[in-house]
Amino acid sequence: MIFWFSGTGNSKYAAQRMAEALNEPLLCMNDRIKAHDTATVETGERLVIVTPTYAWRIPRLVRDWLLQTELRGARQAWFVMTCGSEIGSADRYNRELCRVKGLSCMGTAQIVMPENYIAMFGVPQADEARRIVAKAEPDIDRAIAALREGLPFPPTRNNLYDRLMSGPVNPIFYACFVKDRAFTAGPACTGCGLCAKRCPTNNISLQNGRPVWGGSCTHCMACICYCPAEAIEYGRKSRGKPRYHFEAL
């Protein structure tokens, strides 16, 4: 079975490619997390977990959901992590998660996809995003080939920088940067509610027809990048930047 979580569609796309190639069922963790649904999942022996990279590890809300959910039948787990540049030493923490869950960790694959973290980094225009996706296709194919043969993924890079970013920097990043106070909706907002619908943490509510952020944001960027009116800004950091989600390519 292939589990996926995605903010703006990169990981969803990778998961769908793998599911189609391997004839594996898909499970959307966004829906389960949003519904606070931690009911047992019958997975079969092989589990593939496809997620974006948040602060050089898998997202905390994905980790927590996996820890709280019984994965009945699962024996081996492969991780596929999409990112804008790198995943650090995320594999170390994936292996620890597997240890706690009683799973054999078969490694972590890094897939570089278009950057979506508009709260901090530049986001590519559509043409550049398409080029990045095209460059990622062979990496997705290599992950599929390993999964088809039941082979572990090759070891990921694990230098001092990687260990620093996935280690001490990760909690500092969450504490200092993963906040929603800078999100605002401008006059172009139509009150359509798509931001609230997309939010995996139910952090957005509509009040008087306007979105209000509630303080439990995970910085998936779904609200700002899917807004059809491009009415949402993240302070000054998002101004003038293109919005990215995979379906727009």
Automatic annotation (TrEMBL):
Domain of life according to the entry: Bacteria
Keyword Transmembrane helix found: no
InterPro entries found in the cross-reference section: 4Fe4S_Fe-S-bd (IPR017896), 4Fe4S_Fe_S_CS (IPR017900), EFR1-like (IPR047964), Flavoprotein-like_sf (IPR029039)
4Fe-4S ferredoxin-type domain mapped to chain residues: 180-209, 217-237
UniProt KW keywords: Iron, Iron-sulfur, Metal-binding
Keyword Ribosomal protein set for record: no
Name recorded for this polypeptide: EFR1 family ferrodoxin
Species, as recorded: Faecousia intestinalis
